[in-house]
Amino acid sequence: MRRLLFLNGIKAFEAAARTGSFAAAGSELNVSAAAISRMVHLLEERLGVALFERKANRLVTTQAGRAYQGGLTPIFDALASLTAQVTASASARVLTVGVGPTFALKWMIPHLAEFRKAEPDIEVRITTGGMAVPFADDWSCGIQLGDGQWPGLVADLMPVCTARLANILKRPGDLKGPSLIRVAHSPDDWPSWLKAAGVPRVTARGPEFQFYGQALQAASDGLGIAMGIRPYIDDDLAAGRLVAPFALSVPKGMRWYLVYRGFHAEQRDFAAFRRWIIRAAAEPAARRKGARNA
What we know:
By secondary structure, the protein is α/β, with parallel strands linked by helices. It is built from ten helices and ten strands. The strands form two sheets. It has an eight-stranded mixed sheet, sandwiched between helices. Helix 1 crosses helix 4. Mean pLDDT is 83; it is low at 288-294.
């Protein structure tokens, strides 16, 4: 059972600690300063901890009070944001999607026109997300790479480069360390592929970038050979901007999956977005499977 002590007192304390006075807290909560003081005193009695030092003309939080207020204020902020989402007018048809920068650039934005065509009245807002960013309170959903299951969209690794560079690569042993572009947060990509290709002695020593998108742009500009990850490279391969000099691809051991809070599942606009993105994610895999079976 969740143990919550005296919520009115907790609200009164948080407001007083944040604003610095019982009067300001009373104005915010629409009660008198005396009522705030009384609720905070009752809270202190129930907790068995002093939260304020009462000075002549000001309030000073104790060490325990500072720790308590530091945790409470983000909770109340998140609660206010969540309430605003749940009670938002049905006319405000907005979905906020948290995605990593490369996923946004290489997959989400190129496919977004399809969703707008199907649902022209729903506005999709893309915000910075990915594995390194916590799920924000104002997100409708997020798209992350991990060990969850999202059927149809698998993260495969495959070297990619310009056609000019590909012409001089006859076998994996032709790869040279200084020409292998690296991604800082995925140091195991090249070693995994090189081991599967039978050339584990080659060591990637090429330029290093923070994101896959930067590495793929460098490969497009002829700087070297990047380790591409599906689905980032699907459109570039189809358009001929990049080519795969070797047929070998290896699984990254992770999948893309959609994350969201439970109450969103019942919302009409989010349900439409979820159906669309799962269908769109499955299409590249279906085309690859058809090509192999042809």
